[in-house]
Amino acid sequence: MRISVSRLARRLRVERLGLGGPETALSDIQLAALAALERKGPMTPGELAEHEKVQPPSMTRVIAVLEERGLVLREPHSTDRRQVILTVTPDGRDLVQRVRRLREAWLAQRLQELTPEERQILRQAAPILEKISQS
């Protein structure tokens, strides 16, 4: 199972790299952090690090790259002056959505190649895989 999941993840990464645009300049963790902000909404850097299960110093470097490329904004926290809130810019949102559409199209095509029974098995397995991924 580990090998299959790893191969699927690698295959989805290859689809992103096939775009040849600014998406290819981001690392997997940079894109994951940007996607988390796009999906979950504004977060502090600490919340984002925790969500992505990386150490805060690593997330600081990720955020710096995303900010430098105009994909996220830092704004003052409304109640804690020591904190900042990260939000996705329109360019960041567009990039995430473009990558998501490409990956979903590739995956939809592969799923259509399966039998209805195989697709049903995958639907049943999806919550279990999600549970494992969140542990």
From TrEMBL:
Stated name of the protein: MarR family transcriptional regulator
InterPro entries hit by this protein: HTH-type_Bedaq_tolerance (IPR052526), HTH_MarR-typ (IPR000835), Tscrpt_reg_MarR-type_CS (IPR023187), WH-like_DNA-bd_sf (IPR036388), WH_DNA-bd_sf (IPR036390)
Pfam families associated with the record: MarR
PANTHER family given in the database record: CONSERVED PROTEIN, HTH-TYPE TRANSCRIPTIONAL REGULATOR RV0880
Record keywords, A-Z: DNA-binding, Transcription, Transcription regulation
Superkingdom assignment: Bacteria
Domain HTH marR-type: 1-131
GO molecular function terms attached to this record: DNA binding; DNA-binding transcription factor activity
Keyword Transcription regulation in record: yes
